[in-house]
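Colleagues,

For the teaching module next term, I've prepared a clean inverse folding example: a structure given as C-alpha cells, and then the sequence designed for it. I'd like students to try predicting residues themselves before seeing the answer, so please don't circulate the second half yet.
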C-alpha cells in the first residue's frame, strides 16, 4: 500500500512539472497529497486528494487518507474517504482561505480482524498558497460520527490544466 501511494504522488508530481498556471480559476483541477494526523486514531497518515474549482467561490474536493496506527491503539489499519465542498471566502492572488463541509467514510480494522466502517460529516476549513507550479495547503476538520476525530492535514497540490 505504501508503494502505491508513493508511486501515485510521484506520478502527480511529474504530471505537474510542465504546468505554469499558479492562480486558481474556475475550471482548475489539482491533484496532490500530504500528511495527516487524526486525534482519535492517534497516528500520522498519508493523503492523496483532488480539487476541482467549479466557480470563483466553490470547489469540490475528494481525498483518501491512510493512517498508520501504533501497536498500542489495538488497530491494524485505519483509512478514510472524504468528499467535501469548499467555499472560498478570502481570495487573494496567491492565497485563499476556505470553509469545507462534506461526507466521510472511515474504516477501522482491529488486530482480531473485526472491520468496522462508519459514515460521518466533515466540518472545517483550510488555506492554500499558490507558488509557480504547485500550491501548499493546510486543513483542519472535525469528523462528526461514530469515529469522531479532529484531523489536521498539510501537503501540496499540482495544477493539471
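(Answer key — instructors only)
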Amino acid at each position: 500500500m505504501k508503494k502505491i501511494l508513493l508511486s501515485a504522488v510521484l506520478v502527480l508530481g511529474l504530471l505537474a512539472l510542465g504546468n505554469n498556471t499558479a492562480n486558481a480559476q474556475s475550471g482548475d483541477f489539482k491533484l496532490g497529497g500530504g500528511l495527516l494526523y487524526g486525534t482519535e486514531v492517534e497516528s500520522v497518515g498519508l493523503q492523496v486528494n483532488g480539487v476541482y474549482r467549479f466557480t470563483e467561490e466553490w470547489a469540490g474536493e475528494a481525498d483518501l487518507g491512510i493512517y498508520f496506527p501504533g501497536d498500542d491503539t489495538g488497530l491494524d489499519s485505519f483509512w478514510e474517504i472524504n468528499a467535501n465542498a469548499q467555499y472560498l471566502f478570502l481570495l487573494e492572488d496567491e492565497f485563499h482561505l476556505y470553509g469545507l463541509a462534506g461526507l466521510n467514510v472511515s474504516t477501522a480494522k482491529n488486530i482480531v480482524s473485526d472491520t468496522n466502517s462508519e459514515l460521518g460529516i466533515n466540518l472545517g476549513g483550510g488555506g492554500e498558497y499558490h507558488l509557480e507550479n504547485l500550491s501548499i495547503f493546510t486543513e483542519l476538520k472535525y469528523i462528526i460520527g461514530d469515529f469522531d476525530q479532529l484531523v489536521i492535514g498539510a501537503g501540496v497540490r499540482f495544477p493539471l490544466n
